[in-house]
Design goal:
The complex is a heterodimer. Helices cover 50% and strands 0% of the residues of chain A. Chain A is an all-alpha fold. Chain A folds into two domains: 11-99, Alpha-helical ferredoxin (Fumarate Reductase Iron-sulfur Protein, Chain B, domain 2, Orthogonal Bundle), CATH 1.10.1060; 105-165, no CATH class. Chain B has two domains: 5-124, Glutathione S-transferase Yfyf (Class Pi), Chain A, domain 2 (Up-down Bundle), CATH 1.20.1050; 142-276, Rossmann fold (3-Layer(aba) Sandwich), CATH 3.40.50. Chain B contains 13 helices and eight strands. Chain B has helices spanning 13-17, 19-31, 51-54, 56-73, 82-97, 99-110, 125-139, 162-165, 175-181, 203-206, 208-224, 235-244, 258-265; strands at 5-9, 35-38, 76-79, 122-124, 149-153, 186-187, 229-232, 255-257. A four-stranded parallel beta sheet of chain B has the order 2-1-3-4, sandwiched between helices. In chain B, helix 12 links the parallel strand 7 (229-232) and strand 8. In chain B, helix 4 packs across helix 6, helix 5 (82-97) packs across helix 6 (99-110) and helix 7 packs parallel to helix 9 (175-181). The radius of gyration of chain B is 18 Å and the shape is globular. The chains are: A mainly alpha, B alpha/beta. The interface between A and B is large, with 64 and 70 residues.
């Protein structure tokens, strides 16, 4: 096998259609790469990711670790001279990766937590006691400890297919 | 909507990891004359880094559900976390700008008997203190000025993306520094002050070691500037700095959320600030 990469001619348009309307505005000045704290000590290059998306190098992007190195700090977005919505585009690419089954186990765990309690972190008994000690009710007035609200919350996630996306609760 | 009432949005990290942040916010806003209403049954914002990265349709529908709860309560939303602020603000912006999207989301909400009409604004508590109250009203309540030297950490989703938030200078923000100095504390300049803590975007949950490289850079710079405390406005950044230092030998900078600092300066009992939940001991 050679290392020739086969672009998907429809990929850039699919990113644009999903909301990444500014993808083609990028003229590759590299301001994003120079602004990115994730790229300081790693090989992650924001501009390269945008270039690959423009070129349709889907198979390079969707399974990659690089896609998940952005902390969504918006430094690149603030400085982009072309007003490319870089973070929005990265989120769209991540959604595409997840829909194709590329999702870290630790991320599935966060998803399962949301599906079971409506919160991204668990509520331990010890924490409930601590809440009481600072003068708060044991359960916050959220989906945590409110089965009716949790049922609604979960119903929305089932309606949008989130439960299947993360492989069930 | 009436500006002396807010619907308090708690999110996940504050109530379930640092309840002192929740308690301090409630007490500080009460003392400043606000009526904070409960958003009963609200869920995760949902988290902009993880959940939005997984599936935007789910993220938007769940955010709209939270906004609909506030709309029913009849108040604008008060957030105490940059992540919640980021998610709910962005989602609200999308729903305002895109009537088709609002219609789609309402079809989903209808299945749980809810509807969002787009009437609420999403606010960050620090910005409310700064923009709605201002220095005189806030300082009038500061009975116990604090003498601390601190490093302000703004976090990414406070003022950014600035093209929709219009809140502060995205490169050289000043709101938090001023809010800190109203308490009597000194907010020091330090290198890379505007840098991310490392936790966002799903990075902390996926690769905590990589997230810590950001945290260590910031801690090193804060220490070099001789800060004794970190002041944040986001429980997730708070968690990253506080728990992160367990895995970074040699660092011991206590982490305090602005609501807790305000509670201290306003003379609230220390027992209500929940400082015992912090990994890095806060000896005040």
């Amino acid at each position: 096998m050679s290392n020739v990469k086969i672009p998907d001619p429809n990929f850039a348009q699919s990113v644009i259609n999903a909301g990444g309307k500014t993808l083609d505005l990028c003229y590759h000045c590299g301001t994003c790469t120079g602004s990115c704290p994730s790229g300081r000590n790693t090989a992650f290059r924001t501009r390269q990711l945008i270039r690959k998306a423009q070129l349709g190098l889907k198979d390079d992007i969707l399974p990659s670790e690089d896609l998940w190195m952005c902390t969504t700090c918006y430094s690149c977005v603030e400085r982009c001279p072309r007003d490319v919505d870089i973070v929005d585009i990265i989120i769209i690419l991540r959604n595409m990766a997840v829909s194709q089954g590329y999702m870290a186990e630790d991320h599935k765990k966060v998803g399962r937590s949301l599906l079971s309690t409506g919160a991204t972190v668990p509520a331990s008994d010890k924490m409930k006691q601590y809440r009481v000690s600072v003068g708060l009710p044991a359960d916050p007035p959220t989906t945590v400890g409110d089965p009716k609200a949790m049922a609604d919350f979960k119903k929305i996630m089932e309606r949008t297919g989130f439960d299947k996306l993360i492989g069930g609760a | 909507m009436a500006n002396d009432k807010f619907a308090l949005f708690l999110g996940c990290i504050a109530p379930l990891r640092y309840p002192g942040i929740e308690k301090a916010t409630r007490e500080v806003f009460k003392a400043l004359g606000y009526d904070l209403k409960e958003m009963t049954g609200a869920g995760c914002c949902p988290a902009p880094g993880v959940i939005r990265s997984f599936n935007q349709a789910t993220w938007l529908a769940l955010a709209a559900r939270n906004l609909a709860i506030a709309e029913k309560v009849g108040c604008d939303v008060l957030t105490i976390c940059n992540g919640c602020y980021g998610s709910l603000f962005d989602a609200n912006h999308i729903l305002h700008e895109d009537p088709e999207m609002l219609k789609k989301v309402n079809e989903i909400l209808a299945e749980v008997g809810m509807k969002y009409e787009g009437k609420v604004k999403v606010r960050h508590f620090a910005e409310v203190l700064y923009n709605d109250l201002g220095i005189d009203k806030v300082r009038a309540k500061m009975t116990n000025p604090v003498d601390l030297t601190v490093a302000a950490h703004y976090g990414c989703h406070f003022a950014r993306p600035s093209k929709i938030k219009h809140l502060d200078d995205p490169e050289r923000p000043h709101i938090l520094d001023e809010l800190i100095e109203w308490t009597g504390a000194k907010s020091v300049p330090y290198a890379d002050k505007n840098m991310c803590c490392g936790a966002g975007g799903g990075v902390r949950s996926r690769d905590s070691k990589f997230a810590l490289t950001f945290t260590e850079t910031k801690l090193k710079n804060m220490k070099a500037a001789k800060a004794d405390y970190i002041i944040d406005v986001c429980p997730f950044c708070h968690l990253q700095f506080d728990r992160g230092q367990k895995d970074l030998p040699g660092y011991d900078l206590p982490v305090i959320h602005l609501a807790q600092l305000y509670g201290l300066a306003m003379g609230l009992p220390k027992s209500s600030l929940g400082l015992e939940a912090h990994e890095v001991k806060v000896n005040l």
